[in-house]
Amino acid sequence: AQSVTQLDSQVPVFEEAPVELRCNYSSSVSVYLFWYVQYPNQGLQLLLKYLSGSTLVKGINGFEAEFNKSQTSFHLRKPSVHISDTAEYFCAVSRADFGNEKLTFGTGTRLTIIP
Amino acid sequence: DTEVTQTPKHLVMGMTNKKSLKCEQHMGHRAMYWYKQKAKKPPELMFVYSYEKLSINESVPSRFSPECPNSSLLNLHLHALQPEDSALYLCASSQTDRNPYGYTFGSGTRLTVV
């Protein structure tokens, strides 16, 4: 089975500062990796995904993530955050052989932007 | 159309009521999902429908009954719920259940059981 660990439950960051949200995964097979964002009282929106190829993945809203197979990590970064980035961020994993039949989510990281 | 539409957005029901949640997509996706999300927790998978057939039931109590009448529509029928079933219920869809491109989520139905 696959699992995802998001060690930071809350991350406060000053506006215009850089941010990194950490995600580590565990799997005995190849995986696909995803970052989703959830704004208050909303559903989840796909930020970016890693399927294969280049380990640096760019997504929407200026976010990017780097897949590191040796460290089993998929950390999310943004060079300069904005107040509108305040949200819950979920890392997720699925088996690469079966696709996203079952998407397993991490426990989430609440990003709070301080003006 | 690139959306998953869920109705109603909010629902309050008593423990003896019967209600239904509705989810609709017109993207031609052939896999649809129900997730349950408690406050400050990640979404938990409940059911997966693939080509209108139930392919995964994550040991969900029978008071939750899913239905997929056609490839665009997914319902979740609720009966005799408990207060602990209060949560945000999210519907999602994907091209198939074997593709890697991620889900499209609806904005959810916030359910309160009283």
Characterization of this structure:
The complex is a heterodimer of chains A (115) and B (114). By secondary structure, chain A is mainly β. Helices cover 0% and strands 52% of the residues of chain A. Chain A is built from no helices and 12 strands. Chain A has strands at residues 3-5, 10-14, 19-21, 24-26, 31-38, 44-50, 56-58, 64-68, 73-78, 87-95, 104-105, 109-114. In chain A, the strands form 3 sheets. In chain A, strands 2, 5, 6, 10, 11 and 12 form a 6-stranded mixed beta sheet that branches. Chain A starts with a strand and ends with a strand. The model of chain A has no long low-confidence stretch (mean pLDDT 93). With 114 residues, chain B is mostly beta strands. Chain B starts with a strand and ends with a strand. Chain B has strands spanning 4-7, 10-13, 18-25, 31-37, 44-50, 53-57, 64-70, 73-79, 87-94, 104-105, 109-113. Chain A binds chain B through residues 32, 34, 36, 41-46, 49, 51, 90, 94, 96, 98-103, 105-108, and chain B through 4, 6, 31, 40-43, 45, 48, 50, 55-56, 90, 92, 94, 96-108, 110.
